[in-house]
Amino acid sequence: MPRRQVIAALGIVLVAALAVTAFADAARSGEGQAARSNLTMIAPAAAGGGWDLVARESQQAMRTGNIVNTVQVVNIPGAGGTIGLNQLAGLAGEETTMMVTGTVMLGGISQSGSPLSLADTTPIARLAEDFEVIAVPAASPFRTLEDMLVAWESNPAALPIGGGSAGGIDHMVAAQLAQARGIPVENMVYTPHPGGGELTLSLLSTAAGTVGVGVSGYNDFRDLVESGQLRVLAVVSPERLTGVDAPTMDELGFPQVDLVNWRGLVAPAGITPDERAELEAIAREMVATESWSEAVERNRWVRSEIYGEDFEKFLVTEQTRIDDLLKELGLA
């Protein structure tokens, strides 16, 4: 392995190790305390991505709403969220920790063959739906999605598509679009990134090995879109996103590209019914705050709240749906 790749690999291992250590310290700090006193929120991805955004918006809403005294956010990136899931599994019975989850984690579980699944957690709440976009740097020659697709068709290997973890929603959206355009999915070159921050750095770089097209949640790109550094070619949502001058996949003739990224919260397995009810109450109070309403509007989310057993049933059917879709797309 070239020296540069060795250094990069060691860096990833070090970051993961530090994150796990920080998580263990944060979890220990809550031992013996009720969730209302001290709550740890796990964002199972690097800072700057969608899960991190949900965790920090939740933290802000809980603080400003005087719902929880102290809320800590801990990032544990890697493997489509399954490293964070593994850490959560080690806290069975710990009632002062919740983890952000969503469609990406279901893909990570399916593709990695993880022995753990969301059935090994205590489902608390589904909060909102978040929408994917396809974006390019402002200097890109692709002015429309059709421009990009023509180039992609002619030489898929020459146009790597960047996104989050392999098997996650970004990867599935790219594969759905390839299928819809008649591009063999096996010819697609997909470059995974540990978080939205790393993906945007790659999109803005002209160095070898970086990508010229990115698929991610709108909020991973929002600041750079608003500053004019990135251009959105298409949004994967039922309706146009407010303030975003880009057509939907339906408008562009690709209704089969339709994946929505929901966001939710789970707790460790083994907590008591009363502890679960308390965490559900915290989630309900959080989404009722003005701070959360502002976050929903600012981040162009759509509320989709379900709780407890209803959320648990949803996770079972959703995991099956994602497993089947990954097989259909040739990604699992």
Descriptive account of the structure:
The structure is a single chain. This protein is an alpha/beta fold. The chain has two domains: 3-130 and 262-328, D-Maltodextrin-Binding Protein, domain 2; 132-236, Periplasmic binding protein-like II (D-Maltodextrin-Binding Protein, domain 2). Helices cover 44% and strands 20% of the residues. The protein has eleven helices and eleven strands. The strands form two sheets. It has a six-stranded mixed sheet with strand order 2-1-3-10-4-11, sandwiched between helices. Strands 7-6-8-5-9 form a five-stranded mixed sheet. It starts with a helix and ends with a helix. The model is unreliable at 1-22 and 24-32 (pLDDT under 50).
Lay out the secondary structure.
Blueprint: H1 3-29, E1 38-43, H2 50-64, E2 70-75, H3 82-89, E3 97-102, H4 103-112, E4 121-130, E5 132-137, H5 145-154, E6 161-163, H6 169-181, E7 190-192, H7 196-204, E8 213-217, H8 218-226, E9 230-236, E10 261-268, H9 273-287, H10 290-298, E11 302-307, H11 308-328
Parallel strand pairs: 1-2, 1-3, 6-7, 6-8
Antiparallel strand pairs: 3-10, 4-10, 4-11, 5-8, 5-9
Helix pairs in contact: 2-10, 4-11
